[in-house]
Each structure stands twice: as C-alpha cells, then as structure tokens.
Write a structure and sequence with these properties.
2 domains; Carboxypeptidase Q (chains A, B); eight-stranded mixed sheet; alpha/beta; hydrolase (chains A, B); secreted (chains A, B); homodimer; Aminopeptidase; 33% helix; 519 residues; disordered N terminus
C-alpha cells in the first residue's frame, strides 16, 4: 500500500519511478544530524568569518585569500584530513579597491553611491572636472569627441531603469510554484534560432563591437573617469567587471558603476542645460604575484575497504564580487557546506566512502575553479577523455542560490536519482524540503561535473531577495543571511552526504554526454 | 431621486449631510482645468528645478534659497501678482554638506554609505583611527571612557534594524482601506494616560536626559567622529538632525548617520574581536548671515468687488532634509501647488476671491514657516487672539504626503465641508479621487491654520513608497516622482481652488478652538 501510494505520488510529480525502489533512510542518523545542525549550529559564525572578517572575495583578491586561508585552517581545526589550497590552473590578476570617493560638486555638493568596476584602474589621485555627456552609437559619431576627453569625466545618455516594480523584494517559493517544478517533464528546449534571432544576434554583435571601440577610444583619449549606470535602485548597486583579469589584458579607462539615481540626476542636469562638475578619487590595486587560481579542499576519509576510494563531494564557490562581502553569493553556500562537514565530524561519523568538500574560486568569471578541478581530476568535457577518478565520484552537491533554505533538488535530468532523493528528503518535509524537479538549473559549479558525466546537483532554494537586492550587489552583506535557512540547508546537505557515502551503490548516472567539440 | 441617492450614499459613507445641499460644480471649467492639467502639464519641469537643480533644501540652506528664488521668479514669469519671499520670523542657522567621505580601512577597504546629521560640524580634514565601541547607559558608565576619546571614532552597541519585511515597498490605497477611512466616525481619541504610560514616559525622559549627557561628554572629550545607526536598509538611509539650528546652539561632535548594513558590520567586527579602522573627511558649512525664515508667496488677485478681499490659500512646504533632494517630501507638493497656480493662470481664470500660494520653510523642524505666517496674518493659537484676516480666509489646502495621487480629502473634523467637497470630487472619480474622511491627519502645515479656526485641509494621497523608501531618506530623488500622479493632483487642486474662489459663501468653519494655553 505504501509503495503504491509512493508510486502514484511520483506519477503525480511527473517523474516515473520503479515501484520496487524503496531507498533506505537511516532515521537515527538523521536525528543526530538534525540535533547537531539545528541546535548546535556554527553556520553563522562561519559566515561571519567568510564575510565581515574576510571582506570582498573577488577572484584572486586579498579578500579571497583571507577567506581561503581561514577555511583551510578551520577545516583543520575541525579535524578534517587533507585540508589545503589546491591550484586548479592559471586565472589572472587579483584586484581590489583601496579608495572609492566620488561626489557632485556643481551645482551643489552631493556624494554619489558608485563602485569601481572590477579590474579597472584608479584615477591617480583626486580629479575634478565637468561631466561630459557623450552621445555616440558608432565609431563615426565618436570622432566629434576626438581630442576633447583628456582628463574629463564622461557619462552616457542611458535610459533610466528606476521603475517601481510594486512587487515584494523578498519571497519564498509558493506551493504552486513548487508543484509546477515538480510536474515539469524536462527543462523546456529553447526555440530554434530563426531569422529574427539572427537579426538580434547581429545587433548584439554590432553593439559589442562598438563597446570595444568605445572602450579603446576612451583609453586612447585618456578619459579621466567613465560613469556607467548600475542596475539597482534605492542605494542598491549591482556590480560587474569593467576589464579582463588576464595578465595580458588591454588597458581601460577608470570606470565607476554609478547608482541609477545618481547617474540619472547627472544626465537630467546636463540635458537640462545645467553643467555638472564631479570630483573623484579612485584607487585600485592589481595583484600579479601569483596568477594561479586555487580551490579549498578537505576530506573526511572513507573507512570501508572496498568503498573508501570512492568519493562524494560537496561544494560551492567562495569567490564573490567586490562591492560587498558576497554573503548570499556565495558565503552562504560555502558556510553551509563547511557546516555540513562540521556536523558530520561533530557526530563522529566514519563514512564508508570518502567525503570531500571543495570551495571553488573564479566561479563568477566562468566556473573556472570547478572546471579546472574537474579537468585535473575527472576529465575533459571537450573530448570526453575521462580519468580514472571520474568513475569513483558518486555525486557532487552544490549550493549557490543565496541564503534561502532548501526546498528540494534539481535532478538535472538524472531521473534515476529521483527515488533516492525522494526518500532522503522525506525526513525534512517539516523543514519545507519536498520537491524534486527533473529540470536542469544552470549558472553554477555542478555544471562542471555534469559536463563529464558525474551526477552533479544544485539544490532548489528559496530566492528571498537574491534577484532583487543581493546577487552581485553592494548590499550582499551578512545582514541578508537568514540564520534558520542556513541551518536547515546544512542539516539537509549533511544528511544527503551521509546517505550518499553509505549507500550500497553510487548515485546512478545519466548517459555520458557527447564531447562538447562534437556537439 | 438623485438627491435621495446622494443622501443614502453619504449615510453609507458615515458622514451626515443635509439633503438640501447640492453644491454646484462648473463642469465646463473643470474640463478646461483637466485639459490644461492633464495634457499640458509643466509639473515635472517644475519638480526638476526644485529637486535636481536646487539640490537639498534644508531649512535656511543655500539649496532652499535657490529653490525659493526660482519659485518666486517662475511665479512672476507665469504672471502671478505679489510674488515674493516673506519673512515669517527667526529660524536659525543654515547648514549644508560640503564634503562627505568615510570608509573602513581595516580589516580591508570599504567605503561606507553614511550622511552627516544636519547641523553637525565636520572633521576638520581627513581623520583616521580605530573605531571604539562605546557601551554606556548612564553617566556613571561613561566615566570609564574619560580621557580616551580624543580624536577617536565612536560607535554604539545598537541593535540591527535590518529585518526583511516581506512586504512591498510601494503601494496604493486599496478600495477597502478607502472605505474604512470613509466610514470612520472621527479620528479615534487617544487612550488616556495611565500608570504604564507614565512609566514609559519616565523611561523616555531618562533616555533623553542621558542622550544630552552623552552628547556633552562626546564634545567635552573631543571625540573625532560619532557613528549612529540610520533607519533604512539596502542602501536607503533615513536622516535627521544631530544638533540644534539655533544660533545659540551648543556644540556637538561630528556625527554620521550610517547605513544599517555598514554600521552593523563595524559593530559585529569589533564585538567579534576584529579591530576596525576608519577614515573620514566631513566638511559642513553653517550659514549665519540671515537667521530669518522665509515663505514664498504669490497671488492671483480677486476681481469681485465684494469678495476680492477674501482669500483661498494653497500650499506645501518647500524645505526638505539634506541627504537627497526632497522630491516626495515635499518638492512633489510644492510642484503640484505651483502647477495648480499655473493651470489657473494658463486658462486665464479671473477669480472672485484672491487665490494665494505659500511655499513654507522650516516645516521639518516644527511647521515653523506656516506657523509664523499664521501668527503674522491670522492669529495666535495660544491665546486665540485673532486678526481681521482670519475672518477672510475661506480655506487652506495643503499637499505634503509624497508623490501619490489624490484619493480624497481629510475633513479634519469639518463635517459641514463634506457635501461641498463631495460635489467637487465628483468630476474626478475617473482619476481615483473619491474619498472623504471626517478624520484628522497631522504632521504638516494645514494644522497651523486649523489651530486658529481656519478650515485647513490635507488631501488623502496614495503612499507609494513614502514610508519605506523616500520620506527623509537619501533616496528622496526626482526618480521617485510619479508623473501621472502629480498631474492628477495639480488638476484636482486647481479645480478645488477654482470652486472655493467662486463659491457664494466661504467654506463653513468648525467651532473656534479653545486657546492652547487654556487646554
């Protein structure tokens, strides 16, 4: 009866599961894990060190190094084995802000909210000058500014983004949204490219080409400072990079990503015939002494003779953007994964398979830390040449969607994992984790594993204010962490890791992907 | 039949209206006003000059003077009579920010979002130093810091306010909320003070006394800079004053109202045993050359022999706080009132009664501009000694609740005005203005008129994000103005003013209030 009910339940959820699959759950161990994770948590303390104490953790920055070193030491303190920094390959230059001041001085004084774009240079001390509104959509139109920009502050006639949304900033998944995910057949295929797409693509390419031209023009003309409009409102400023981190990167002009309100005020004034003067003092520092990228790794070694060479991995990226301390992106995921390791150690668990944590770097620039690690250990997705370790990694679990609690798992197309995860989620119904979706989710490090045929999963997490306020913004600070959510996540991850490490078989795999080169 | 229907409608709305009161409405003139106000509006242009061009408009600041002078000139340009600045009495010093820079430098660099409190001094150039966490709730506890604060940066162990509300920032009144207001019998009487209130009051007095002690201690000890926590999250910082504007004001220490996220980061670090260093360069300017406060006034003179000495007034305060350009508080109301005057002039209206606009100053410090004007022209609410002009002012209409459109009128207890306003609102049903409430509303300049027995009204306005984001914050900028709402408000005000100026009788009055001294 129970099995039948379970079966029909899965049918309802759109995922076909064989009726004989009754995955065992160790209720006593789950209880131990819950007790440690929910009632003796250290996750907020960990998050404090990763955020407030370490600072911004841009790839290869001093802040990231502080956090990496703290994590290695903390993992050692907790008794993990093989805790270390592991080089994954060449990344490029580190970079950090060392002074950031900009203010309107005419028609009246007003300090603006603005953030230097990552990997852009500073102003070489305090500069002052009139802001020039540059209107050009082509190289030809740029010509009129030749010889006029040296030392000047430049702004563009960019449209205001500051529309009220009349929506809440922070929200959790509704039951309806979760049901929709559970009932999904698969991630919808994107529409085939058509003529309209081709036209759009051509426009985009043209725009990108012009941006490169513009960037070079601003350098050649020795523009003193460029203001670009940031996404975000109300003092929230989303940041990006303004130049390449490569050691061979071309020079760019100093560039400030400016809050939309301050940006639009300047644009309105100039367009209204009111001259605007600005003063700014931006100092940024490039760090080139070590171009290698590193991941933090540590283990709880397996103890079963036959299985200890097999591995279950958990991870998340530790690097962040530079305008805040990357609390939800992704100190949250890093702290949860560290906490999951701590929980398992605290209850003195001796796993059959080896449990390994990895905290990636340079995720924000293209999942480089995990891709490099995967290339070094497991295989090359371009050729599908695999290494022996590939066959021994049961699964990789990732967390990188903010501070929100776990609501379930993206199966990433691995339908055979559904009955297993269904059983493992069962003890966490009361904590809101119930949903399996066959869908893929992208944008983070489980993809690096998935690309070489290793089961790689990102959990479904409540968004809270990830999209509206924190993701890559100057507001991604410790304040945004929801303590109860992080405790819940660490507890569930620890339980998943426990069960994966003890399971008779490894997590079933999808068909091996085709080599990327052949696709 | 129509009257009967009207009557039952008023019953439903909780306001008893005599069945014979059928107030005339001039439909043709309403149409003219709508055409000018909705289709040929200048309200956004006016708002641009009051906000972006003038800058922050703190009482007696250069920004306010710019806006006042612009308004006087613009009123003249539009052809108003008697446009001028009118002194209302002594206010105190002007003040403005001339440099505002502060950043954490240790454990890593991070420029903070913080605003000097109004009327506080600067730092006398760049200062650097460790931040000291001061824990004291009494003068005795302060003793431990004696001799230790000179030049130091001081912070307090204040609780974090950064709770997610999970509510929308911006909203309009719902039909239910409007119905509740319409059905109200009167503003609920506050509960009588009891023993618990007395205890609370005593606590408050103690706290206030300690604050004064603390403030003096910080000055005596020559603290270099004080950080206090601002209300607001996500980069939104609400500001206040940190000292008196009086020319005789006591000295205070420099004080920065710091965004809650930056403030809490510093507090967490220090409490976590991590020293924090800050650098700051704050320059503020006091302006003492003229301590008088001024209101902007202008008129469209009455043309009816018998009625031209009678007046209808409209107004709103033009002064703002200093962290932004006071767009919703209250450039919005000022721009709408200026626009209402412009509309009436543009349609070449020659009123029977004189129409007068007044844009107040020093409202934020206690409705001083309107109180002073009322004292000079109409009477003294303390003694209820009235001047002849008091008998000749039909009504005063105020706008000061943000950018939101008009949804109706607070009758301020003047139930005899209900049938009149009901009729006058009728042509604006399609624009969402329908509600009369017998309730009082407070906090702004109509109170100064109400206090001497003159019908004074504030319109009901949609809140939008007034309470959550803009009211007294660093985000109260032009971007927050809702163009369609301001057009609607100006159109309705112009129509109200038209009808008030032409009406056979003045607006009926409530019983004269008792002298405040006698209450």
């Amino acid at each position: 009866m129970k099995l039948k009910l379970l079966f029909s339940c899965f049918i309802a959820a759109g995922i076909a599961v064989p009726a004989f699959a009754q995955e065992p759950v160790d209720a006593a161990m789950v209880q131990k894990i819950r007790e440690e994770g929910l009632n003796h948590s250290k996750v907020m303390e960990t998050a404090f060190y990763l955020t407030d104490v370490s600072g911004p953790r841009l790839a290869n920055s001093p802040g990231l190094k502080r956090a990496q070193n703290w994590a290695v030491n903390q993992l050692k303190t907790w008794g993990m084995a093989n805790a270390k920094l592991e080089a994954w390959g060449k990344f490029g230059k580190g970079w950090e802000v060392q002074k950031n001041y900009a203010a309107i001085t005419i028609p009246y004084y007003h300090a603006i909210i603005a953030i230097p774009k990552a990997w852009t240079p500073g102003t070489n001390g305090l500069i002052k000058g009139e802001v020039m509104l540059l209107k050009a959509d082509s190289a030809a139109e740029l010509e009129q500014y030749k010889g006029k920009l040296a030392g000047k502050i430049v702004i563009f006639d960019t449209k205001a983004p500051t529309e009220r949304t009349w929506k809440v900033d922070a929200a959790r998944y509704t039951d309806e949204e979760l049901a929709e995910m559970a009932n999904a057949k698969a991630t919808p295929e994107g529409p085939r490219r058509n003529a309209a797409d081709a036209a759009q693509m051509a426009t985009f390419r043209k725009l990108r080409a012009f941006r490169a031209t513009l960037s070079q023009f601003l350098v050649d003309e020795k523009a003193g400072l460029v203001l670009s409009q940031a996404r975000g409102t109300d003092g929230t400023v989303f940041t990006t990079n303004g130049a390449s981190y490569a050691d061979t990167a071309k020079a760019v002009a100093p560039e400030l990503e400016t809050s939309s309100e301050d940006y639009q005020r300047i644009v309105r004034l100039i367009k209204g015939g009111q001259p605007v003067q600005l003063e700014a003092d931006i100092k940024t520092q490039f760090i080139s002494d070590d171009l290698q990228g590193y991941d933090v790794v540590a283990e709880i070694p397996g103890t079963d003779k036959k299985l200890k060479d097999q591995v279950v991995m958990i991870g998340g990226h530790l690097d962040s953007w530079h305008a805040a301390t990357g609390a939800t992106d992704n100190a949250a995921g890093s702290a949860v994964m560290l906490e999951a390791m701590r929980i398992l150690k605290a209850i003195n668990f001796k796993p059959k398979r080896t449990i390994r944590i990895a905290l990636w770097s340079s995720e924000e620039q293209g999942l480089f830390g995990s891709r490099g690690y995967v290339a070094n250990h497991f295989g090359d997705p371009k050729t599908m040449e695999l290494k022996p370790e590939q066959a021994k990694l049961s699964a990789y679990y990732n967390l990188d969607n903010g501070t929100g609690k776990i609501r379930g798992v993206y199966l990433q197309g691995d339908s055979a994992a559904a009955p297993i995860f269904k059983a493992w989620l069962e003890p966490f119904k009361d904590l809101g984790a119930t949903t399996l979706t066959i869908r893929n989710t992208g944008g983070t490090d489980h993809l690096s594993f998935d690309a070489v045929g290793i089961p790689g999963f990102q959990f479904i997490q409540d968004a809270i204010d990830y999209g509206t306020r924190t993701h890559h913004s100057n507001q991604d600070t410790y304040d945004r962490l929801v303590q109860d959510d992080l405790k819940q996540a660490a507890t569930i991850v620890a339980s998943f890791v426990y069960h994966t490490s003890q399971r008779a078989e490894m997590i079933p795999r999808k068909e091996l992907p085709k080599p990327q080169r052949a696709r």
